Hints:
This protein is mainly alpha-helical. The protein is 62% helix and 3% strand. The chain has a single domain (22-256), classed as Orthogonal Bundle (P1 Nuclease). The protein has helices at 2-17, 24-36, 40-50, 54-57, 61-64, 88-96, 105-118, 123-136, 164-174, 180-191, 195-200, 203-219, 227-256; strands at 154-157, 160-163. It has a two-stranded antiparallel ribbon. Strand 1 and strand 2 form a beta hairpin. Helix 10 packs across helix 13.
Amino acid sequence: MKLSKLFFSFSFLFLTLSMSAYDAVGHRIIADIAYQNLTKNARIQLDKILGKHGIIYAATWADEVRSDKKYAYSYQWHYQNLNDSLSTSDFQHLLTNPKAEGSHLFFALDSLTNRLKKEKNDVEALKFLVHFVADLHQPMHLGRLEDLGGNKVTVKWFGKTMNLHSLWDSSLLEERKMSYSEFSKYLQDKFEPRKAAFKKFSKLQSIEAGYAIRTEIYGYDTTDTNNYHYVYFFAGKQDEMLYRGGIQLANILNSIYK
């Protein structure tokens, strides 16, 4: 009996640790883009709360505290398992009723935003929010329940075996060979002509964009083992989600810290 409990504990730990969205680089890219797009007033307030550039340095905190049992309640906040073929009205329903399918990512974003509107110096809520807005823009965090957002889907990546979720967390980003600051600058330059349009996109539109890519990820022909084809097909889509995440985070923080 003790051995079975121990096995379950290790299995649960493995699954929760593997459900992190983007690695440190991805989270810092999004936080840096957000920081560059804060209003002057919002930046001053946030720097006072977390220290200068603090939202960048705190961007991975929500993953780091998974090793602390007192934060076990937050494990399921990192993802929102979704069925296939959802419509705009389906998403609107889930956002209006964020606990309709349990306390997951949509619930976390809603509750944390409300916490910060009531208490702007809530450091824990702020660090969680910075992280989870990034999670929202990793398409496999909107994945299928049956495969745990791609954690049970095995893929080959330049000779290595890994799961689909890890591919989108880190390996696809690593293939670009840039630091978070280089990547952030590259994305801001790339999307500068469309910046005004991105600033107008709602959270719903970000979700639909990520969900559309998620559908393409699941539909990709994995018998094509030329991973350069994969990079060519998906790198630009990942770029857009990272940039969307940064602008969306800036929009949320600017609205809170007016």
